[in-house]
Amino acid sequence: DLAELADLDLQGHPIAAAKSTRWRYQSGFNEIRGTAYRLRLHGHHELADELIARTHLRLGFDFNVFNAGVMVFDLARMRADNFCRDYFPYVERYEMNDQGVINAYAGADRLRLDTSWNWCPRLEDVENPKIVHWAGRFKPWNPAWVRAREIWQAAEAAAPIRPSRADAPA
After folding, report:
1. What's the rounded Cα separation, in Å, for the pair 160 and 123?
2. Is 140 left (phi over 0), alpha (psi -120 to 50) or beta?
3. Which of 37, 59, 128, 161 is most buried (most C-beta within 10 Å)?
4. DSSP characters for the chain?
5. What sign results for the dihedral spanned by CA atoms 107, 73, 82, 89?
6. What local confidence, expressed as pLDDT, does residue 98 receive?
7. C-alpha radius of gyration, the chain, whole number
């Protein structure tokens, strides 16, 4: 029931999200340094140094990366923090994706969601998942086999069929 997420008390944190289950996404600073390394490879040494300075000065020592698949936001807090003004430019300036930007913003300042809210079947075992997140290129609606495809198929079979906008009457 998604109402559980809607009713979640964020306890002053700007977001709630589950820790990333991928072994290489444990250290937030390693992720930031990886982005800086990529910028340097493309000849953007000043931008790489700027990214390191901005994030390391603001975030403290280190933090666990969280997965951006399922999150709860405190929009009032994010507005007060000028999230859009200060962090949207990271996408273009530092060539970061949504997960990287939101991790650079919140760092350790987040409420940790249980992994059952963002279960990635190919990466972990969760006994009673609430939301399944087929992260990466392996999707249950494609022909190649993926773990937990039967969950997708059951949900698809239970969903009412809706016409696409192209099929809707004019």
Report:
1. 30
2. alpha
3. 59
4. -THHHHT---TT-SEEEEEP-SGGG-BHHHHHHHHHHHHHHTT-HHHHHHHHHHHHHHH-S--B-EEEEEEEE-HHHHHHTTHHHHHTHHHHHS---HHHHHHHHHTT-EEEPPGGGGB-TTT---SS-SSB---SS--TTSSS--TTHHHHHHHHHHSPP---TTTS--
5. positive
6. 92
7. 19
**Residue with structure tokens 């991790």?**
103
- Please name the residues in contact with 135: beta carbons below 8 A apart, sequence gap of 6 or more: 67, 69, 120, 122, 123
Residue 91 has pLDDT above 90, yes or no: yes
Residues in the chain: 170
The model's pLDDT over 109-166, given as tens digits with 9 standing for 90+, comes to: 999 999 899 888 887 788 888 998 888 888 999 888 888 899 889 988 888 877 766 6
> Are 25 and 128 a contacting pair, CB within 8 Å?
no
